[in-house]
Predict the structure.
Amino acid sequence: MEFFPYLCIRGAAETVTFYGEVFGAGERFRMDAPEGRVGHAELEFGPAIVMLSDEYPELDIHAPPKWGGTPVRFHNHLHAPVLVCS
C-alpha cells in the first residue's frame, strides 16, 4: 500500500514549474485538460511523490480559499485491494 499527498491548488502549472526550479522536483507525469488546467500531475522529490491538480469547482474539487483550509488529500494505491477489503 502506498499513500501520496494530493494537492488541489489554483495555478498548478506555475506550481509545477516553481517546485522544479526551487526544489529540483522532477515531473513524473502530467495530464492537462483541453482548457489548460492541470488535471493531474505527479512530481518526484527524490524518492517521494506528490500529486497535484488545479481546482475543478464543477466537480466540487476546490483549492484552499474556498474552504479556508488545507488543499491536501491523500491518494491510496492498493496493490491487492481484495486482500485489504476482505
About this structure: The radius of gyration is 14 Å. The first helix runs from residue 12 to 23.
